Amino acid sequence: MDRPRFSRAFMNPRYWPLWLGFGLLWLVVQLPYRLLLLLGRGLGELMYRFARSRRHIARRNLQLCFPEMNENERERLLRANFASTGIAFFEMAMSWWWPKSRLQRLAHIEGLEHLQQAQAEGQGVILMALHFTTLEIGAALLSQRHTIDGMYREHKNPVFDFVQRRGRERHNLDASAIEREDVRAMLKVLRAGRAIWYAPDQDYGRKQSLFVPWFGINAATVTATTKFARLGRARVVPYTQERLADGSGYRLVIHPPLADFPGESEEADCRRINDWVEDAVRQHPEQYLWAHRRFKTRPEGEPSLYRKRPKKPVSL
């Protein structure tokens, strides 16, 4: 995919409010890091109070995944999760606009040798991540140290898409953005011995998925990880990240490659992946993206696990 280019059409008056919003956000993220953490928690509290639909989804997910907790414990975890989501808003802007040297001071990276070894051997890597709220800044910090290609879905708003892609790609000019549906391009990148960020932990529907347990509940789990590893002749290297509680930055861990992967079957691989994802989430549940309807797709005959969204009134 070509690099994002500025277009004169972006200066159309209908985009002025968005440009103004970006300008104000740029000014805010020049503040000290610890103050941004505080502002993020405040934003998260507002989201908790007013984002009712997302709050319901996250609360329901916590009920399903942590039945051993009592209601008060889950509610505290829910509020902490919204605080983390609020911080992520400013982390996104930091990753787009902070000077690289300022960002790098927050990075604590472990296991980089696993990516370096694969690169030296010309071996493609599926960097198997998951949807933590620190996703954006974690990718930026790692991209400063190693070339990582990424799966990409174009934003509907062309100005937002331009700013987002430019912010993401500035950390490594050798990186490429690959359309999420472009399987051929992804396999080409892997066979060329490159590393690509990929997260298999969301519900993408019944097609290309198997139902295997996650937190004890059958969840639609994509089989693409197995297919990409086999067809791309690539290693699967787990990757986790966390926002450190002491405010010193972020711990990024590149784990050793999965041994004997792909395994005996796609179902066995999906189970293995879900077990790994569950273990990673349990370590930092407050930083996971619980507002996603992870159990949206159900096996045939099973009812929905989420409250139905009210239908919008029809205007006459």
Automatic annotation (TrEMBL):
The keyword Cell inner membrane applies. One of its GO terms (biological process) is lipid A biosynthetic process. Its main location: membrane. Catalyzes the transfer of an acyl chain from an acyl-[acyl-carrier-protein] (ACP) to a Kdo(2)-lipid IV(A) to form a Kdo(2)-(acyl)-lipid IV(A). It is found in: Cell inner membrane. The chain crosses the membrane at residues 16-39, 77-98. The keyword NAD does not apply. The gene is lpxL. It is a single-pass membrane protein. Belongs to the LpxL/LpxM/LpxP family. This is Lipid A biosynthesis acyltransferase. Keywords: Acyltransferase, Cell inner membrane, Cell membrane, Lipopolysaccharide biosynthesis, Membrane, Transferase, Transmembrane, Transmembrane helix. It is an enzyme of class 2 (transferase). It comes from Stutzerimonas zhaodongensis. A motif (HXXXXD motif) lies at residues 131-136. It catalyses: an alpha-Kdo-(2->4)-alpha-Kdo-(2->6)-lipid IVA + a fatty acyl-[ACP] = an alpha-Kdo-(2->4)-alpha-Kdo-(2->6)-(acyl)-lipid IVA + holo-[ACP].
